[in-house]
Design goal:
Low-confidence stretches: 1-29, 412-445, 532-548
Structural class: alpha+beta
Number of strands: 17
Largest sheet: 6 strands, antiparallel
Family: Belongs to the AIM9 family.
Keywords: Mitochondrion, Transit peptide
Strand order of the largest sheet: 1-2-3-4-6-5
Organism: Penicillium nalgiovense
Number of domains: 3
Oligomer: single chain
Order of helices and strands: EHHEEEHEEEHEEEEHHHEEEEHHHHEEH
InterPro entries: Kinase-like_dom_sf, Mito_inheritance_9, Znf_C2H2_type
Subcellular location: Mitochondrion
Length: about 550
Amino acid sequence: MRRLFTQSVRPFKWSRLSIVFRPGFSRSLHKNWNSVNDFFQYTRGRFVSNEEHELSIRRVKFDMNELARLAADSVGSRECVHIEKFPDGMFNKTFLFTMANGVEVVGKVPNPNAGQPHFTTASEVATMDFVRNVLGTPVPRVLAWSSKAGENSVGAEYIIMEKVTGVQLSHVWHNMGIEDRFEIVKAISGYQRSWSSTSFTKYGSLYYSCDTDYQKECVLVKSDGTHAKEPRFAIGPSTGRDQADHGRVSIDFDRGPWDDAFQYRRAVGLREITSVQSIGDLPRSPLSLYGPDTYYPTRAKKLAALHSYLQLVRYLLPTDKSIMAPFLWHTDLHTENIFVNPERPTEVLGIIDWQSTEVLPLFEHARQPYFLDYDGPSVEGLEPPTLPENISELSPAKQLEAKRLYMSGPLRGRRKRAAPSDGFDEEQTNVLPEPAKKSCSSPEPSQQDILLVKAKNYIKKAKKPRRRFQCYGDTELPIHRRTQKYSEYKSTLRHFREKHLQDRRCHMCDEDLLHDMHLRRHAEEVHRLSTERNYYTKEDTGSDIDTD
């Protein structure tokens, strides 16, 4: 990430660095909460680049007195006696409200850079409700909210929610043993299993039905394939960060919802084309170095790349429908967003920060949680760490420290087993298979029959069930070798890469194509030719081995 700050940017801690205003901020002694300017400014750090702009998009003015009153009303308290501002996030301001009766609630106000007005807050609230009550994930309950800044007394969008009990995982993670860490991983994986057990039929973001004009009903697809409608919810425009960053909030483009993954990915390309054409100063890549004689991207080069993307996007998408289906996912699982029981740290009590959650193809959510990122000691080279050779001679304390460093280092996974041989030796045909020994009066089996029966027995005796087929395009191998070879999963993949994923050319229009499947699709869509039949003539196998 491009370095914008004079201090390192890490996810904020709810207690560390918090700005606490004590004790004269009770309503009785300090009735005007609006006089505290830090409530409305970005106070976490400084920006070393374009600071005036960065601060302006994180400055929001609203009526804190009204927000405090609404927070008290949400829990039936007569007044709020204390407000604590948590360290600023990049997109929101968050506060802890303490009531006269001791009850605490959390209030959240989005910055101007958080996303589209109304949609960002409305989607976050609906998502929290859905995840909590439909998917069974521990999420704070929303007590009061408004996504219409012009229609409430606060003058800004806001969410008031329960305070999550427990402590952030960051407070205990570094002191947890490997077994306890593994329990946390299993707990989070359990919630992810729940998220992956329910897919949707549309792509975008989740809303209450009454908060969006888009008539994309929320239909859930369970893991058993059954469909269930959720009339309270609807799929509406995406609220992802990519839809808002770098001035995109004010640009008009297709934000969804979309009916399929191709529509979604194509809309991404069109969005970027519109943004490149509309944004005055193109944002610099955070991964590039800029200086004399270095590469500078231009508007023309970006547009050329994006137009090429639009031509290729259909063929870049996975063909596996299970990872193309739309799922709702938390994509920011770092240790500050996970709360655990301080007495039993392996128990997850809450997961926060569901802003900008999207319903997208599962393959776009394919990232390990951030709390699993390597944070151990720095290492040199590619060799895995080892324990000291003289560890038995060390003191118990030093042995413990050596083992701790070893376990926190970049442990390499177990070595992969060598690929097993296919178990079929074509030369070992001197022993007749059982069917050939049944009767001396039977006609002597041919060499091909013997090999075919042996291939069939090999498949039947395999430890795992195997699907078998013959590829009639592979004319270089005899029938029995094709039958046996393509009962192996890896051999099948290797065969298709080598035989069917080579470049092709349409001789009707002289167009270069990527592979056989591309050629078939081209023939059907462009020339209206049927490709249901094989291009190859099926040979008579003369055996009872199934072919697919």
